[in-house]
Specification:
Mean pLDDT of chain A: 92
Low-confidence stretches of chain A: 1-30
Number of helices of chain A: 13
Structural class of chain A: alpha/beta
Radius of gyration of chain A: 22 Å
Order of helices and strands of chain A: HHEHHHHHHEHEEHEHEEHEH
Oligomer: homodimer
Largest interface: A-B, 59 and 58 residues
Distance between the termini of chain A: 59 Å
Strand content of chain A: 15-25%
Helix content of chain A: 40-55%
Shape of chain A: globular
Chain lengths: 338, 338
C-alpha cells in the first residue's frame, strides 16, 4: 500500500520542517529582534512563557513537542476578555429579556422575568439556577444557530460595558491577544475552552481572537434537526446539552479536540481541572492563571468574588508551579485602547 | 484598538493569498499537468468533483467560497473504508469480548456474551440494541481514553479482514484518499462525521486519512474527570453520550465544527440528513454518495443491506442532484493494493 506506507515519512519530514520554522520564529523573539509580547512587562511571568515555548520548540532538546501536539486551551471570561461586573453573556441575557418583554406580556409579575425588568439583582439571584435556565430558554433557544449568531452579533454591535462605555469586543486583554498570536507563530493550535455558551462565542471569536468556530469548546444547549418548509434546519432547544466548566472542561476538551493540551490558560476555580489535567501528565507542560489585581485599569478580585472566583485554583497554582499573572505588575496595558 | 481594527484586513489579504494558491493548484490539475485523482476513471463523476472545486475556488467567479468556509465532511464506514461483511468496529467488539472472556467467567451462558463466544450471529441479533449497549459497555468503557486508544491500535495491528486477509487500515478506498488530499490542496478542511465511535477512529485517522483527532466527529460514550492516585484522569463510562448518525449528523457537525459544510460525502441512509443539510442551503454545494456496485473488487449492496443500507438516500440523490459514485465504473482501483 504505497500511499499508506509512505505517509508517516512524509509527515515526519513536514513536522521537522514546521518545527524548524517555529524554532526560527521563537529564536527571533529570544534574540530581541522583535518582541512578540510587547504588552507584557519584563519579568518572571513573561520569562516563564517564553522559556516554555523555547523548550517545546527546541528541535534537539529534551522538551521538544511535535507541532501536531502543540495544543493550547484558553478559558474566555476573565482570561481573554472582561467578566466584571457580570459575565458578558449574562448582560446579553438581561438585555434580551428586556427587548423581548413587550411581546411576552405574561412575564409581568412572573419570576425570574420581573426581577430582570425591575433590575432587581437580588430577586434574580433568589430565582437560582432554575431561574437562570428559564432565562436561557427564552433568550438562547427557539431559533436556528444562524439566527442566534445574528442576534449575538447585533447585540455586540450596540451593547456597551457599564464602566468602560465601550463595545465588549474592545474589552479583550491585549497581552492575551499577543500571547495567542505568539503561540500560533510557534506552531500551536489555540482553542477556547469556556464555561460560556459555545454559540455565544463563535460569531466573533475568529474576528477578535483569530480562533475559528471549530476551535471553540463551550457549554451548549441541545439542537434538533428537522425539515421546515422543505428546508433542512437545526433548531435550538431549551435543554442543557453540556456544561463546559470545572470537571466538565477536561471532558469537553477531550470530546472536542481528542488530545490533552500541553498548555492551559485560565483565571478562576472553573479552570482548576483543566489546568490539572493539562499540567499533571508528565512532559513539559504549562499552566497559567490570570490574577485580576488592578482596580485602576480593570478590576481586582479573587477568593471572595461571586464572578470568576479564584480560590482553590490559586492554592493549586502554588502547589503545581503554575505561572500566575499579576495584571498590575505584569501587563503594560490591559486593553488596546489604554 | 490597533490590533483589532487591523485584523480583518490582514486576514482578508491572507485569504486572498490562500485562495490564489488554491486556484493555482486546481489550475494545474485542470490543465492535466498532474491528475490529483489518478484512481478515478474519466467521466461525469470525476468531472462533477473537479467542476465543483473549480467553482468554489475561482476567485472572481460567482461560486467563490473563502478558504475558512471550505468545510467538507466525510462519513467513514463504507465511504472511506470497508464496512462489509460487518462494521469494523463490530469486528473489534466481537474480538474484544473473546479476548476478555477468560477473565469474565460470569459471561458463560449469559447473552449477549454467549452468542459472541459461540459466533451465533442470529442470537446476537436477537439481543438487539440492549445487547449491543452491553457489549459496548464491556469493550469501550472502564478505562481512560489513552488506554482505549492503545487497545484499538493493538487490535488494528493484528486483526485481519475475513475476505481480504489484510489489516483494516489497508482497506481504505484509494480514490477517496486522493479526494481528501485534493480537497485539502484546494483549501478545504476535511472532517470525518461518522456514526462510528469517535475514539475508535482517532487513534489512526490522522495516519491513514490525514485527518487529525480534532477533526473527527463521531458517536461517543460519556467520560468523567477524576483524580486517581493524585493524577488527573478521564474515565470512560458505560453510558451513551451522543449518536452521530442520521438526524444526529447535522447536530454533531454543528456542535463540533460550528459551520455548515459546503460538501458532504456518504454512502448510506445514515448520511441522508448530513447531505440534505449541507446541500439544501443555497450557494454552490456538493453532495456525493458512494454506491457499492463491485462484488469482484469489493462488495455490491444498497437498498436491502443490513449494513450500510442505501435506500432513501439513493432516491434523495436523484432528487437533489447529488453525485453518485458507481464504484465499478468510476474507480480505477478500490484499494491501493489492487
Amino acid at each position: 500500500m504505497h500511499k499508506l506506507s509512505n505517509a508517516p515519512d512524509r509527515r515526519t519530514t513536514l513536522k521537522l520542517m514546521l518545527a524548524t520554522t517555529a524554532v526560527g520564529l521563537s529564536g527571533v523573539a529570544a534574540h530581541g529582534q522583535a518582541d512578540p509580547l510587547p504588552s507584557w512587562n519584563e519579568g518572571v511571568t513573561k520569562q516563564a512563557i517564553t522559556a516554555f515555548v523555547a523548550r517545546v520548540t527546541a528541535l534537539d532538546g529534551p522538551g521538544f513537542v511535535p507541532v501536531d501536539q502543540r495544543v493550547a486551551t484558553f478559558d474566555n471570561d476573565g482570561t481573554l476578555w472582561i467578566e466584571q461586573p457580570m459575565y458578558v453573556q449574562m448582560a446579553f441575557i438581561l438585555d434580551r429579556v428586556r427587548a423581548l418583554a413587550p411581546q411576552n406580556s405574561d412575564w409581568k409579575g412572573k419570576q425570574p422575568f420581573q426581577a430582570v425588568l425591575d433590575g432587581d439583582m437580588e430577586a434574580l439571584a433568589a430565582s437560582g439556577e432554575k431561574g437562570l435556565v428559564e432565562l436561557m430558554a427564552v433568550t438562547h433557544a427557539g431559533m436556528t444557530p444562524e439566527e442566534f449568531h445574528e442576534i449575538v452579533s447585533d447585540w455586540l454591535a450596540t451593547a456597551r460595558h457599564p464602566r468602560f462605555k465601550r463595545p465588549y469586543i474592545e474589552l479583550v486583554y491585549q497581552p492575551m491577544l499577543e500571547l495567542l498570536a505568539y503561540l500560533r507563530a510557534n506552531g500551536f493550535k489555540t482553542f477556547i475552552a469556556s464555561g460560556g455558551g459555545i454559540e455565544f462565542m463563535r460569531p466573533w471569536a475568529e474576528r477578535v481572537y483569530g480562533i475559528p468556530p471549530e476551535q471553540v469548546v463551550g457549554s451548549s444547549i441541545k439542537t434538533r434537526f428537522e425539515m421546515r418548509d422543505g428546508r433542512p434546519t437545526l433548531f435550538r432547544l431549551p435543554e442543557i446539552n453540556f456544561i463546559d466548566d470545572k470537571a466538565g472542561k477536561p471532558v469537553g476538551i477531550n470530546q472536542h479536540i481528542g488530545r490533552r493540551p500541553i498548555a492551559a490558560f485560565g483565571n478562576s476555580d472553573g479552570d482548576l481541572e483543566m489546568l490539572q489535567w493539562t499540567t499533571m501528565s508528565g512532559g513539559v507542560r504549562f499552566g497559567l492563571i490570570v490574577h485580576h489585581t488592578d482596580p485602576e485599569r480593570e478590576y481586582a478580585y479573587d477568593r471572595q468574588s461571586h464572578v470568576g472566583q479564584l480560590d482553590k485554583a490559586l492554592d493549586a497554582a502554588a502547589l503545581n508551579k503554575w505561572t500566575v499573572v499579576d495584571i498590575k505588575d505584569d501587563w503594560k496595558r490591559v486593553f488596546a485602547f489604554q
